[in-house]
Amino acid sequence: MKLILWKFMYNKELKITKQVAKEAGEFLRKEFLLWKRGNARYKKHMELVTWVDEKANKIILSKLKKHFPKYAILSEESGLQDKPSDYSWVVDPLDGTTNFTIHHPLFATSISLFYKNEVVMAVSYLPVLKEMYWASKDGGVYKNNEKIHVSSKSALRESIISYNHGQGRINTKKSFRIFEHFQQKALKCRNFHCTSMQTAMVAAGHIDGYAVSGAKLWDVAAGMLFIKEAGGVVTDWKNKPWSRKSKTVLAANPKLHKIYLRELKKIGLA
Q1: Is the pTM of this model over 0.85?
Q2: Model pLDDT for residues 62-93, shown as the tens digit of each residue
Q3: What residue numbers bound the domain in which 221 lies?
Q4: Shared domain check, 171 and 109
Q5: Which stretches does DSSP call E strand in 31-181?
Q6: Of 118, 115, 122, 119, whose CA–CA distance to 143 is shortest?
Q7: Number of domains forming the structure of the chain
């Protein structure tokens, strides 16, 4: 009975989030086809930002505020808009801004809902691929309308692991160590520079694992729910369950998670 209640508890939130993610995503797709590289600017830490990030953010926040005025919102582009509520939205209007600006089609809009400290509903939309990943707690995870699962791979040498890095030299150096090690030990090690897509790919079994140090909450929140609902394991690099305060992420199917963690220990990262 509890599983059934959870499955349908966030129907309204899921419906609205899917609508607004698609609306923002389609806006991004149209602008992507017209984009000129020189239109971007830099914010702190030399991160690219564009007016389309900000416009997509306005599209999303206006609808979330209209339908859920009592919920707090944390957005990459506008920061925290706090409310005395147990519910909070976490929004990345354009994940993969650099890809967008160089006419690389792998970018996404990602929206998650937290109840207290737990992510309970999430949607990520890849507008060029027209792929929508969505999940709610205990309701499974779907790619468009097809239920998805993590891969069944169990051998490190046959697996593909993906990685990113957060801001700063330390996190960048850690990512170099991940690439150098797993590119030799696994089948492939890849960075697609779009965390929402990479974590969704793990949930769908397209790739087998994901590792990152220093990612922001809006980068990873949706993917953490996707992978858990797809039967995967999501922890930090110390093998503690992932939470919104985690500084690192290791996510994979249950068999490979143990192996990846062992390999991270070998190179001094876990």
Answers
A1: yes
A2: 999 999 999 999 998 777 888 889 999 999 99
A3: 156-266
A4: no
A5: 41-43, 47-49, 72-75, 79-81, 87-95, 108-115, 118-126, 131-136, 141-143, 146-147, 160-163
A6: 122
A7: 2
